[in-house]
């Protein structure tokens, strides 16, 4: 099989017209996107034919699409031909342990508040580290395998578990879903695959750390989680990127499938580089995240702490197909300086007695714009569907903006949909009260916003809640006083 | 300990404190009384460092330091405590968490290690008893949905935890029922030592039956117009502010 793949790689390379690559050891693709690049990526990963075909189909579809413009964000037009679509770290060998990870990278994780050493110490967290486009190391693989849990990089999954990938990849977010998901389907480089077999409750948190390193490189991860009947998993994703003057594109796709009585909890601590205080640089984060409660009594819960990125476009959603299934969305989105976030969720009630809960906390500072966009949809057959939405905004200063765009579409008269929204400002009297107790203004603001975000923070796995709290404080440093 | 000389302050162009003189020594309790709007809370806020107020003249020395030069948080860390007339709410932050942060920030300033959880809980239990405050109240969001009396009691609990050198109680007695008044006053008395001092702002001499002041000052239109012993509070209660107005009103109102 590897023989065949080698040939494929050769073919891909020889077909390329511009002569930019002569060395198959090259760990970067040159800027630009065309079918050859798609072939190059696929070849780099020794992918089977069907995977390449899948990618090409997505690419051809993407060519016919136009970039969405409805979000409440503004950014200069992205030149898709100036982006590099593949970049693997120089270090080629697979690491045997996290100890071998580059110290700079380790430091970055530590700054995010999630130390890899600590991860190792906490024996209940398995880590998959993805740097630029390639998965570097996955911990606790053996321990998980004993339970039948598959937790590996997407590249490995394509090789080792093709039947699962063929069955589920693109089943929740079709390649044609939207502009960025089509792009991702064509050029996705890596990501995590996670499969929990029937009846198994994962004894540890599974987590992936994404890191953009190389310059002018787009990052397109693909994550797929499949929870079979009666299984449970809690998954955490963390992201960082270095400071660069140029904007970098990040367009990931995450798909979750929960079958009968299964539960998946997905938590994100997103800390991509937000750009400097004048709005220069930063990551464009255009992410499609969707889960399907395919089975009865299943549950999918999204929790996100969003502090990074220059522009965020992200709506983790749940399709509530199984009767009695539940969807949850807990979000804290912090924007400072010139950051723009348009984020929220979609809850699509299809099955009977389906329930959804949305708790969104937006914190805006500086000149930033923070929008909540949420859709609650109740289908004809979704008898007794229930939704509760709570959207709170907190403003620091008077140059930032908070916006709420709730959309409600109900086609079944037994549905109950509730929406509450508040907007408040951190008051000077609150800060003075804290000052009077010996807290400086930064500490006071951190305390007040953590209080504001508490309901969401409480949803995070314990190991990360404290770190996420610190992250909130760091993101707002210098925004008051 | 605290020496206020000719302190003048204004807010939004409005002159409120028009030359306050006050000397407070360690171990003393001073009471300030005065009609609504006379500037009592303003004096408290200026001492605590609220930035809305502009100090236009005078000086305040606290334990050898120029108090007016210090940031509000540094004043707190140096040992100034203000029990607010209207304590504010911080949703999502429990009193316990808030006080723990405060205690450790103050310790940090003094070069001390943060208090560990065990020490902190022990101290909290002890002080809870002192002001008879319930654990359940302390785990709720700070002051959110607290009754008026609960807020005041919570202020004194915080004071007990922070052990200030100089505490200002701004109408801590208003809104308290008879039992709570006694409990809060007893708490304040137990916290009294020869090294700390208290400034009690009140409208009612009833509180001064419990917290016996060494001096009573009457603040009227931004000036201390009369100082006496605790009997001054009784006299005031009997006669009302009219007697002050009669005594000094003329000269204060005089348009030159
Ligand atoms: N922001 C402000 N703008 C204008 N005037 C103000 C402001 N804050 C306070 N004042 C005025 O300053 C004066 C003194 O107020 P202060 O709160 O110090 O009175 P007080 O003696 O504490 O009264 P009370 O017994 O009612 O608590 C009042 O006339 C008040 O209206
Ligand atoms: Mg007052």
Question: Can you tell me about this structure?
Answer:
The complex is a heterodimer of chains A (481) and B (256). By secondary structure, chain A is an alpha/beta fold. Chain A is built from 13 helices and 21 strands. In chain A, α7 packs across α8 and α11 (441-452) crosses α13. Chain A is globular. Residues 1-26 and 118-123 of chain A have low confidence and may be disordered. By secondary structure, chain B is α/β, with parallel strands linked by helices. Chain B is built from ten helices and twelve strands. A six-stranded mixed sheet of chain B has the order 6-9-10-3-11-12, with helices on both faces. A four-stranded antiparallel sheet of chain B has the order 2-1-4-5, covered by helices on one side. Chain B is globular and about 55 Å long. Mean pLDDT of chain B is 91; it is low at 252-256. Chains A and B meet through α10 and α11 of A and α2, β7 and α3 of B. The structure holds adenosine-5'-triphosphate (ATP) and magnesium ion (MG).
The hetero compounds bound to this protein are: adenosine-5'-triphosphate, magnesium ion
Distance between the first and last residues' Cα of chain A: 63 Å
Kindly report the oligomeric state of this protein: heterodimer
Number of helices of chain A: 13
Structural class of chain B: alpha/beta
Main sheet record of chain B: 6 strands, mixed
Major sheet: arrangement of strands of chain B = 6-9-10-3-11-12
Q: Which structural category fits the helices and strands of chain A?
A: alpha/beta
Helix content of chain A: 25-40%
List low-confidence stretches of chain B: 252-256
Largest two-chain interface: A-B, 23 and 32 residues
Extract low-pLDDT stretches of chain A. 1-26, 118-123
Q: What's the story with the biggest beta sheet of chain A?
A: 11 strands, mixed
- What amount of the residues of chain B lies in strands? 25-35%
What Rg of chain A is obtained from the alpha carbons, in whole angstroms?
A: 22 Å
Shape by Cα distribution of chain A = globular
Distance between the termini of chain B: 36 Å
Helix proportion range of chain B: 40-55%
Mean pLDDT of chain A: 82
Shape of chain B: globular
């Amino acid at each position: 099989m590897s023989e065949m793949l080698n040939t494929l790689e050769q073919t891909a390379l020889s077909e390329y017209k511009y002569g930019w690559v002569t060395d198959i050891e090259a760990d970067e693709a040159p800027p630009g996107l065309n079918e050859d690049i798609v072939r190059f990526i696929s070849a780099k990963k020794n992918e089977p034919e069907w995977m390449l075909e899948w990618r090409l189909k997505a690419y051809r579809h993407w060519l016919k699409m136009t970039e969405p413009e409805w979000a409440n964000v503004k950014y200069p037009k992205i030149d898709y031909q100036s982006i590099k679509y593949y970049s693997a770290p120089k270090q080629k060998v697979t690491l045997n342990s996290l100890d071998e990870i580059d110290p700079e990278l380790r430091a970055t994780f530590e700054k995010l508040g999630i130390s890899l050493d600590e991860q190792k110490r906490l024996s209940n967290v398995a880590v998959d580290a993805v740097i630029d486009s390639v998965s570097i190391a996955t911990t606790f693989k053996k321990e998980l395998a004993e339970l039948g849990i598959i937790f590996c990089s997407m590249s490995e999954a394509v090789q080792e578990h093709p039947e699962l990938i063929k069955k589920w990849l693109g089943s929740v977010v079709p390649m044609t879903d939207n502009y960025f998901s089509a792009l991702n389907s064509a050029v996705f480089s890596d990501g995590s695959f996670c499969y929990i077999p029937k009846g198994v409750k994962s004894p540890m948190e599974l987590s992936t750390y994404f890191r953009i390193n190389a310059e002018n490189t787009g990052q397109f991860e693909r994550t797929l989680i499949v929870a079979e009947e009666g299984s449970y998993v809690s998954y955490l994703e963390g992201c960082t990127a270095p400071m660069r003057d140029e904007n970098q594109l990040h367009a990931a796709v995450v798909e979750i499938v929960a079958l009968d009585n299964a539960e998946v909890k997905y938590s994100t601590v997103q800390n991509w580089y937000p750009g400097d205080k004048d709005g220069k640089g930063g990551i464009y984060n255009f992410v499609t995240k969707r889960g399907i409660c395919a089975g009865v009594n299943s549950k999918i819960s999204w929790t996100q702490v969003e502090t990074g990125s220059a522009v965020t476009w992200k709506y983790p959603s749940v399709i509530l197909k199984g009767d009695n299934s539940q969807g949850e969305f807990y979000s804290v989105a912090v924007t400072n300086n010139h950051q723009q976030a348009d984020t929220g969720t979609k809850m699509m009630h299809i099955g009977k007695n389906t329930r959804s809960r949305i708790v969104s906390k937006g914190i805006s500072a500086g000149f930033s714009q923070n929008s909540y966009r949420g859709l609650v949809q109740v289908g004809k057959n979704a008898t007794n569907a229930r939704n509760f939405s709570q959207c709170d905004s907190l403003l620091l200063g008077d140059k930032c903006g908070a916006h709420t765009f709730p959309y409600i579409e109900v086609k079944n008269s037994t549905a109950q949909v509730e929406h509450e929204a508040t907007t408040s400002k951190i008051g000077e009297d609150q800060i003075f009260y804290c000052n009077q107790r010996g807290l400086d203004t930064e500490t006071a603001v951190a305390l007040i916003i953590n209080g504001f975000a508490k309901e969401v923070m409480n949803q995070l796995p314990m190991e990360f809640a404290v770190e996420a709290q610190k992250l909130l404080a760091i993101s707002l440093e210098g925004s008051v006083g | 300990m605290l020496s206020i000389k000719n302190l003048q302050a204004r807010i939004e162009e409005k002159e409120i404190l028009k030359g306050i003189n006050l000397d407070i020594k360690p171990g003393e309790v001073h009471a300030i009384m005065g009609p609504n709007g006379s500037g009592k809370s303003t004096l408290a806020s200026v001492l605590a460092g609220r930035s809305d107020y502009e100090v236009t003249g005078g000086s305040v020395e606290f334990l050898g330091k120029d108090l007016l030069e210090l940031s509000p948080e540094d004043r707190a860390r140096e040992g100034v405590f203000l029990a607010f007339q209207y304590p504010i709410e911080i949703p999502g932050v429990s009193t316990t968490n808030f006080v723990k942060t405060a205690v450790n920030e103050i310790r940090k300033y003094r070069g001390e290690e943060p208090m560990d959880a065990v020490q902190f809980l022990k101290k909290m239990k002890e002080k809870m008893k002192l002001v008879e405050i319930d654990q359940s109240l302390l785990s709720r969001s700070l002051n959110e949905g607290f009754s008026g009396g609960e807020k005041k009691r919570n202020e004194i609990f915080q004071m007990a935890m922070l052990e200030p050198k100089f505490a200002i109680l701004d109408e801590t007695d208003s809104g308290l029922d008879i039992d709570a008044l006694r409990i809060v006053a007893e708490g304040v008395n137990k916290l009294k030592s020869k090294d700390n001092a208290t400034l009690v702002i009140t409208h009612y001499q009833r509180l001064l039956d419990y917290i016996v002041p060494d001096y009573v000052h009457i603040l009227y239109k931004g000036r201390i117009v009369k100082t006496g012993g605790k009997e001054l509070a009784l006299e005031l209660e009997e006669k009302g502010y009219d007697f002050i107005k009669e005594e000094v009103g003329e000269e204060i109102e005089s348009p030159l």
